[in-house]
Amino acid sequence: MLRLGVPSKGRLMEKTFDWFAARGVEIARTGDEREYAGHVSGVEDVRLLLLSAGEIPRELAAGRIHLGVTGTDLVREQIPGWERVVQELAPLGFGHADLVLAVPRAWVDVETPGDLDAAAAAFRAAHGHRLRIATKYHRLVRDYLRAEGVADYALVDSQGATEGTVANGTAEAIADITSSGETLRANHLRPLSTPPILRSEATLFRARGAEWSAGARAAIAALARRIGVEPGGD
Amino acid sequence: MPSKAAIRAEAARLQAVLSEAVGGAQAIEADILQPAETLLDLYGEDIRARAYVTADPVRGERMLRPDFTVPVVQMHMESGAEPARYTYAGEVFRRQESPEPGRPAEYIQVGLEVFDRDDPAARDAEVFCAIAGALAPLRLKAAMGDIGLLAAAVSGLPLSEPRKAALMRHLWRPHRFRDLLERFAGRRAPPPARQALLDAVAAQGADAVIDAAGPVIGRRARAEIAARLAALATDAAEPPLPTRDLALIDDLLGVRATPHDALSRLHDLAVDLPALEPALARLSARLDALDAAGVDLEAVAFEASYGRTTLEYYDGFVFGFVAERGGLPPVATGGRYDALTRQLGAGREIPAVGGVIRPALVLELGGGA
Fold this sequence. Notes:
- The complex is a heterodimer.
- Chain A has 8 helices and 13 strands.
- Chain A has helices at residues 10-21, 56-62, 72-78, 82-85, 113-127, 138-147, 182-186, 214-227; strands spanning 2-7, 26-29, 38-41, 46-51, 67-71, 86-91, 97-104, 131-135, 153-157, 173-178, 189-191, 198-200, 202-207.
- The interface between A and B is large, with 47 and 43 residues.
């Protein structure tokens, strides 16, 4: 039995169902709207688990599901050393979003991470505390800023309405997922002009640490053939 | 892997050996839970990737001590008599983002710290010799360097004070340091819109340009944005750093030899970079003190860039001892950290040098009593 975890609601769920359907694998919820169960037809021996997209990385890392659909941003944020834990089988072509570092539009002097670093040094000298960046993507943002050599910043946790933190005075800049930039603009923010921290999209992942019994291997081979992707493996 | 009891016993033995080597030192303890804010302000947000952070509902964020240096310096600055010699032994905690063989998440460290204004070269040698002596049976390879050389070189470059300050801030971040140097040398283009921005500021004034971009929100004030625009304009007008000076920095960072050979190579570089001289005088005095103490310097590797990425709060002499057998972390490391005492001392400072040993590795490599 191959355990496949997919997002349990919203556009991400619908698009995932569409993606599999277009490749001859029908996925559907069973029962009523509130029941998180489903079935798969078109391939044998695949069990569907409807999960919150945010929990799918954890389930993959723990090996409780063999395959899972979720955003690359969530996998890279939540799984340390993600490449050793999961394998990307196929980008699914939807759920595109960029993780960007955004600053107030009035900061005309800040376009690059180097500018941000210089602004942070001056800010710390003037205010006596580090320049605060609100985000929920702590690992990705910290790794990015370390690689870019930015110092004198502090990450402050923001699990929602992150774009509002600057106007509210709880942060000086933010790092968040954006697809169109509308919300940033509405909050008088703009991304740095350098490439984003990460370009994310919905992706089919394979858990390296799941129990790959003969049955699971046969099921993934059949599923992979059907949907036209490489089955992965070590 | 030796048992914890064996490691503790070895730690106690090493602590006594270190204390005796410096003619007696005060054995001290430090709290395991340290205020996170102090460590974050000192090391920056990166420390979160390497230290365990825990939440205390009353005291706020705490960190499981990643090393003893900060609590020992704080203790000394609050109450210490001068001069002072301290030893300690206890667990330190290092978080790992990914499992690395041979890098435990908690291990025991034995340390020696010397706070003494008198004769820094002799104090450097004292700490190096105490640790070398304790590890002598293991036949480790010793390496040393001096972060002060790079700082001295930067101070002598034909650059404006803001440019020098930017380089000094990033001595320990080689990637950003290099990026800045190349930018100052005109080898890296500024962002494409930068010149247009500066032209607009020159024509319309900073306020008009800022207002046209959007409302000033958050704590970074209009005056701070305007001040940086002014700094960018000044910087854009500064002549590029000559290629010759860029090459001097590369030559300096590339020096790897036995300490005396390295010193003579550095003296050659100082012909073109006289600002190195004070740092070379300190290095020369240190080598004399090490010679006088009977250290075989021919067996030591000197690297000008030693410890630049891993020993971040050291600002002068740095050293380490590693096993011939690969794959192990250094058995001991140490160095001088005068600037750290300045940062933690709220206006006061004291020259400080110290080092730490990992007793578990000493046992693993067949040392110990």
